[in-house]
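Before relying on records like the one below, remember that each one covers exactly one chain. Contacts with other chains, cofactors or solvent are not represented anywhere in the record.
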Amino acid sequence: MPSNNLRVVDGQGELPLARPPKPEPVALEVIQAQRTFSAAMSLAVNVSGLEEKEIYIPLKIDAGHWTRIMKGDAHFPVDKLNEFCDLVGNEIPLIWWAHSRGKGVHLLKTEAERQLLAEQERSKELELENRVLLKALHGRAV
């Protein structure tokens, strides 16, 4: 029996994370200084601001196995790496792995363009909100 002893009830959905990750920026040198993949995973968890159970439960990894992964005594299932990075809100393990192979990581142009468009849209929304607030502050109708 798994040590986290979770039972799934048919027809019952999964609860989302109680809180989103709040990752802090990490210098590339700090990531590259990690000696092992497990150390990079631990760094990714630490900077996410999440507790470990908020990560291994959604990943459906047994608590005991998770502990062994974090100690470097077991392997992380690589097919869950994308989901892990999404959960912790950073790419630290990917960056570490690429660096260990003498490679770098960069956004593909299409992804960079998508992020730029999203930021531009958000900027327009904020500008509109700002104009409305300024007009309201000065007592003018919008």
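The first helix runs from residue 28 to 32.
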